[in-house]
Write a structure and sequence with these properties.
Blueprint: E1 6-12, H1 18-31, E2 36-41, H2 49-52, H3 59-63, H4 71-74, E3 76-77, E4 83-86, E5 96-102, H5 112-115, E6 121-126, H6 130-146, E7 154-162, H7 165-177, E8 182-187, H8 190-198, H9 202-205, H10 210-223, H11 236-251
Helix pairs in contact: 1-10
Length: 256
């Protein structure tokens, strides 16, 4: 009997690099011999673009044209054999199932992977930008809400687009404030953007880069299935106070 799959989900504010990270991690799992299902949960249906080097129609789009869908209608094979679907769920034997979920606030359809227990670990992708941290804090609230007492859903923070020392300090302060584990602090890297424009995986185009090696380390950490304690998200007033402390500490006062 096959073991239960490793089921993981990536959440984060739109434009934060969540899809780039999720698709590259799916590829890294497949490259080391795992069978992987990558599911995009975004109405734009762009989560699988880097894995397939093209866009494919979502399950919902295809249902508008056909009454019934076959497996071939919904699944597409990408890099290293990763099976890709846009907004679909499948009951098959996979080693790893990856959900790429858009959502600044975990509610409605965006909460489905957590609410319906499709995922066992949730990784929150964010930068050190205030609005990204604000969204990440809201996502933490959803993680706490849908976690079981014995099985916390939180896998860790993946801090992306870190532009210098101050960004790193802000990210670390946010993780400390929310009592949340951070798996990644990835510096801004123009090679990632270059690969994205080409529609390719940066871990494939620049495998020796520091960013690619960092993401490989994240993949290995995820595979270890180490449980993290539940984070402690801030309420609205605490989040505002956190922002003001950051502004005063690292950006100085503004009298204009």
């Amino acid at each position: 009997m096959k073991n239960q799959p490793l089921r993981i989900a990536f959440y984060g504010k739109g434009g934060i690099g969540k899809t780039t990270i999720a698709s590259n991690i799916s590829a890294l799992f497949a490259k080391c011999g795992k069978t992987v299902l990558h599911i995009g949960c975004d109405p734009k249906a762009d989560s699988t673009r880097l894995l397939l080097q093209r866009r494919v129609p979502s399950v919902l789009q295809q249902l508008q044209q056909k009454d019934r869908l076959s497996r071939e209608d919904m699944l597409f094979t990408g890099a290293y054999g990763v099976q890709c679907a846009e907004a679909g769920v499948f009951e098959e034997n996979w080693d790893v199932i990856v959900y790429d979920v858009l959502g600044d606030v975990v509610c409605g359809g965006f909460s489905v992977p957590m609410r319906r227990h499709y995922t066992d670990q949730v990784y929150v992708v964010t930068s050190a930008n205030y609005m990204s941290l604000y969204a990440a804090n809201n996502i933490l609230k959803g993680i706490v809400r849908y976690s079981g007492k014995e099985e916390p859903l939180f896998g860790g923070f993946l801090f992306n687009h870190i532009r210098g020392e101050i960004d790193g300090k802000i990210a670390a302060a946010f993780a400390e404030q929310t009592k949340a584990h951070a798996l990644l602090y990835m510096a801004e890297d123009s090679r990632i953007a270059r690969a994205d424009f080409k529609g390719k995986l940066f871990t494939e185009v620049f495998p020796k880069s520091e960013s690619a090696q960092s993401l490989l380390g994240v993949t290995e950490a995820i595979q270890s299935k180490k449980m993290c304690r539940l984070p402690v998200p801030m309420d609205a007033e605490e989040m505002e106070a956190f922002g003001k402390r950051i502004a005063e500490k690292w950006y100085g006062t503004d009298n204009n």
